[in-house]
Every structure is written in C-alpha cells, then in structure tokens.
Write a structure and sequence with these properties.
The complex is a heterodimer of chains A (121) and B (139).
Chain A: H1 7-14, E1 17-21, H2 27-41, H3 66-83, H4 89-103, H5 106-113
Helix pairs in contact in A: 3-4
Chain B: E1 24-30, H1 43-58, E2 62-63, E3 69-73, E4 79-83, E5 86-92, H2 94-97, H3 100-116, E6 122-126, E7 129-133
Antiparallel strand pairs in B: 1-5, 1-6, 2-5, 3-4, 6-7
Classes of the chains: A mainly alpha (121), B alpha+beta (139).
C-alpha cells in the first residue's frame, strides 16, 4: 500500500521547495541510484541558487503591475501543484517573454506600443 | 439437519501494518564541498551530526559510504566539478514525518548545515519526492 503523505505540509514544515518525484529505494544500491538521479535532474548551479536555464545569463529590472505579478504567482503555483515542476513566478515570466518574443511580429510589437486612441465623448 | 459452518472469530487488524511501521524513507545528502565546488567541508562532522539528529528525532539512520561524482558546470565554462556526497537513509512513520515539531527540527538542521557549510542549497528526499532548501535564514 502506498503511503499517503501531505507533501505541501512537509514542504512548509521544512521550509523547503518541492522539486519533483523520485524513485527512492532502500539499501546501498538504492542510495547510489537515487543520488545519481538527483545529481542529474536537480543539480544546483555553482554559486548557489535554484536550478535555472543556463542560457539565461542576462539580468534586467522589469517593472510590473502588482496584478501582473499576482497573476504570475498564481500561474507558477498551479504549475508547481499540478505539473510537479518547481518554478518561481519570475522564471515563468522569463519563459513567457522568451516564447512571446519568438512569436511576435514587428507589426504586432508596433501595435502593442502605439498609444490607443481614446473614444470621444 | 445441516451443520452450520463454524465461523472463526474475526482477527483484530494488526496495527503494525496500518500505523506503527516505519515505511517512509527520508534521505539527506551530506555534501563534501562548499558551493564553490572546491573548498572542502568537514564532512565527517556533518555526517555525525546528521546521524545524531535522525537518531534523536526519528529513532535511527544509516550513512552509506561516500559516492564519487563528477559533473560539468556549463555556467562556469564547462568546469568539471567533483563531489563526494554521503547519503544518509532514515526510515520513519507517516505520523512522525508529518509531525510539526519533527519537521521543524529537521528543517532547522538542514538550514544550519547549509549556512555553516556554505551550500547553495540542501537537498533531501521524503517518500517519493525531492525537496530543496535554498534559504538558510534562522527562524
């Protein structure tokens, strides 16, 4: 019978982040196999911090409306909960920026920044 | 007249299968180097401290001989980082691992090791999930 554990409660109690499922087995070989699995999948970048995309080498300040940040927090929380993937709100924001930047045409970009005409009263 | 089949009295469920048995595996990784990947830490001290903590909080643990690993750090120009972590196994019960006091003590120990051994983060496994503690601020 599989043990039912409240992983969110455990994460809160430890002050930890849930990173994903693993197959943990007992004994020496189980220990070594688990270690190899974790080192391959969850390796921390040198200098500390959470695992991230090594191509993200540039950092800029990004002004956000509070409701946008709130939305990213909600989305990241849902992804963590349902997808089993640990992601922070601004990591999700960076992913969205990357995807949108690839898809957006020059005309669409121009349209986005052009001041909207106000409806006349 | 047919003879009624004699019923055996129902056996009491063995509580050992439902609550008391230690069936949750907790694994803590004791690092060999600091976050720079080069400066060695007093690993024996931290293995001893980990065993002592697990013994006190959950009733026992086993430290396995250190493994040797190597990995390429692409964020530092492909530098090869060698580490020799010690894997510590502790079996406990669902009740004990979800106890607030026990969790607080385990979390506090991990943060202390993270701070004093200058780690990027401390990793541990509970059941079938990997947890990471990247923030070592004292509570």
């Amino acid at each position: 019978m599989k043990t039912q554990l409240d992983m969110d409660k455990i994460a809160r109690g430890l002050g930890a982040e849930r990173r994903g499922k693993v197959e943990a087995a007992g004994g020496y070989f189980g220990a070594m196999q688990l270690l190899a699995d974790i080192e391959a999948r969850f390796r921390v970048p040198a200098g500390g911090g959470r695992p991230t995309d090594p191509r993200w080498t540039e950092r800029r300040l990004l002004p956000l409306a509070p409701r946008t940040l709130k939305r990213f927090e909600q989305l990241a929380s849902k992804v963590r909960e349902h997808g089993g993937v640990s992601i922070e709100p601004m990591q999700l924001a960076a992913l969205l920026l990357e995807k949108t930047a690839e898809d957006l045409s020059e005309d669409e970009a121009e349209e986005l920044v052009r001041p909207k005409k106000r409806a006349s009263r | 007249m047919t003879k009624e089949p004699t019923r055996k009295p129902a056996r009491k469920k063995r509580t050992v299968l439902t609550g008391g048995r230690k069936r949750v595996l907790v694994v803590l990784f004791v690092p060999s180097v600091e976050r720079d990947g080069e400066t060695t830490i007093d690993q024996d001290h931290w293995v001893e401290a980990t065993l002592e903590m697990f013994g006190r909080v959950f009733g026992g643990a086993t430290a396995y001989p250190k493994a040797r690993g190597i990995w390429r750090d692409d964020e530092r120009g492909g530098a090869l980082i060698k580490d020799e972590p010690v894997v510590v196994h502790c079996y406990t019960t669902p009740t004990d691992i979800q106890d607030d006091t026990n969790l607080a003590e385990l979390g506090s120990f991990c943060r202390m090791m993270g701070r004093e051994a200058h780690q990027g983060e401390i990793g541990l496994v509970v059941g079938d999930e990997y947890f990471a503690i990247p923030d070592f601020a004292e509570e």
